[in-house]
Specification:
The chain is built from ten helices and nine strands. It is of the alpha/beta class. The strands form two sheets. It has a six-stranded parallel sheet. Helix 9 packs across helix 10.
Length: 245
């Protein structure tokens, strides 16, 4: 599959708990390129109490990565974003350029505590929608109170929320229960993006091609194309994505 785009990764060096050096970042980008990934949105964590950088200070890092990639002939188009940990005041922080959206679009990648109550997650999504953003729920399979609540995922989608799941979860790398959650969402076409959530070169490495092929075989070429190519490109171009596929 051509033009695979990863919308969720932690490759920007020294920005969070992902890559800790430019050397590591380059190795991760080389792996991604060899796997057929042509575009990536770098989404360092933006989470109080954890290591993260002011969004406006990340530009110099991504610029340096682009220069190094050009020298090494690594052909991946990079874009800047954030993985936003939802909390009170996040909208104000986004307006003050302390936290960013995906590739400067209206789409905002947001995460919650995995054990958070469903109502809290729903209210957080609603708050972002009312702020004029299109929330993308990061690694939605982690939120058991969303996945186990009857109509929970559908309810969020009907509100206007987009659903992202991790490739590793689909491939069974995070346990059978998580794999079942994701399989059920895929069968019901409740997923809009599959991403790497890459942090390293081990279990959370930047690979998508194997997962894209699996989804193509099980759920059809059109759906795989939507998840890995078309929808991510719409994010970068800031175009509206159909919620129900």
């Amino acid at each position: 599959m051509e033009n695979i785009i990863d919308i969720h990764s932690h490759i920007l060096p020294g920005a969070d708990d992902g890559s800790d050096s430019f050397e590591m970042s380059m190795k991760m980008l080389k792996c991604a390129a060899d796997d057929g990934i042509s575009g990536m949105i770098l989404t360092p964590h933006n989470k109080p109490g954890h290591r993260h950088m002011h969004f406006s200070k990340l530009t110099s890092k991504i610029d340096k990565l682009r220069e190094m990639m050009s020298e090494e002939n690594i052909n991946i188009e990079l874009h800047l974003g954030s993985e936003l940990y939802y909390r009170s005041g996040i909208l104000e922080e986004m307006e003050e350029d302390m936290a960013g959206t995906l590739a400067g679009s209206r789409y905002a990648l947001v995460e919650f505590n995995p054990l958070e109550d469903y109502d809290y997650i729903r209210n957080g999504i609603y708050s972002l929608l009312m702020g004029g953003y299109s929330p993308v729920l990061a690694h939605a399979e982690r939120y058991r109170n969303v996945c186990t609540t009857k109509y929970g995922v559908d309810d969020l989608i009907e509100m206007g929320c987009y659903i992202q799941v991790n490739a590793g979860s689909i491939m069974g790398e995070f346990g059978s229960k998580t794999k079942r959650f994701v399989k059920n969402m895929l069968k019901q076409r409740q997923v809009h993006f599959v991403a790497t959530d890459a942090h390293d070169l081990g279990k959370r490495a930047p690979y998508l091609s194997g997962c894209a092929e699996l989804i193509r075989k099980k759920y059809g070429e059109d759906y795989s194309e939507q998840l890995f190519c078309k929808n991510p490109l719409y994010v970068i171009r800031d175009k509206e994505i159909v919620l129900y596929l």
